[in-house]
Here is the input.
Amino acid sequence: LIVTISGLGGVYLNKSIFNKIIFFIYLSLLKNANYIFCHNKHDKKLLINKNKKLNKKTFTVHGSGINFERYKYSPIVFKKKISFLLPARIIREKGILEYIDAAKKITYLYPNVVEFSIIGSRYKNSKFDKIFQKKISSSPIKFRDHVKDIRPYIKNCSCIVLPSYREGLSKIILESLAIGRPIITTNEPGCSDLVINGYNGYLIKSKSSISLFNALEKFIKLPNTTKNKFSKNSRDFSINFNEETVIDNYLKQIEK
Here is the structure.
């Protein structure tokens, strides 16, 4: 029995009694596993702290990896406006509200210089969706629902923004690195693993629209040569997350 844990975000962030019961059941089921693969070291540590017996059979892998045939490098195209894109499910934990708040302030200070977009699936019956609809309608952000192929949108933007509260190992950041986009994301598990501050993007405080605002402004003020350098650095860094390497790591543990 091989278990892959792509992320413990929901269980970790929402500490309700219901979630605590779910996590207890989760740990009980993991006792039967022969191998447990976590997408980041933080989730591995969390599991082992809860149950020391899981130590010898719990390993980390670099997420689900990147298919470099599908996600090819594409240099930034410098247009009249600097374009920021947040591609994520429309839930609070992705930092949607912080992004909207920061985008409003940046657009006010830098009119005709920037543009902001969000692409992602809404949960139309959720409480948060009502909040989101109200906030997005009074913002300068363009919203597009789920798309089948995100690649053209990543290529068309200047920078990917993901102010997530926690991830497993963000797939969208992995894909954006491969395409060569600078990243602004939080200094949290599953996000901070993929960005070196000042090398291929910026790390910000979680749940802080001010920290996000500062990073956005910093990126806007960068010369195009530095933006290009960030882009190339993202692509270079992405090589560490080749999906073939991830598969090999699985096989090495299983074949021992």
